[in-house]
Design goal:
single chain; mainly beta; seven-stranded mixed beta sheet; four-stranded antiparallel beta sheet; about 50% strand
Length: about 130
């Protein structure tokens, strides 16, 4: 059974940091790109970062560039999203997802949402100002 489990959310003050984890099981992560999305109340789900399985190429949305870093640990079958300099606009439920053979790059970012095959349950990040 394929499972993705996001964790690491919580309450943080503006300017602080959090590291989210996404533990994957039930599939070979070598074939799957891992992406992070978020959804704030009343807003559409937004793809914020992605890392390709083939060559580690990454994508970041404008809102994430310079503040967030995506990484993977293949030995642990876990992906991470390090989030720094958080602000109130980062408050959202964060989801990780996996997409087979998806290539993470700016030109392909418009297909990010529909390019994912598996989704995990979200983890809530609340940034207090």
């Amino acid at each position: 059974e394929v499972q993705l489990q996001a964790s690491g959310g919580g309450l943080v003050q503006a300017g602080g940091s959090l590291r989210l984890s996404c533990a994957a099981s039930g599939f070979t992560s070598d074939d799957y790109a891992i992406a992070w999305f978020r959804q704030a109340p009343g807003k559409e789900r937004e793809g914020i970062s992605c890392i390709s399985a083939t060559d580690g190429t990454t994508y970041y949305s404008d809102s994430a560039k310079g503040r967030f870093t995506i990484s993977t640990d293949s030995a642990k079958n876990t992906a991470y999203l390090q989030m720094n300099r958080l602000n109130s606009e980062d408050t959202a439920v964060y989801y990780c997802a996996a997409g087979k053979h998806f290539y993470c790059s700016d030109p392909w970012s418009k297909y990010l949402l529909h390019g994912m095959d598996y989704w995990g349950k979200g983890t809530l990040v609340t940034v207090s100002s």
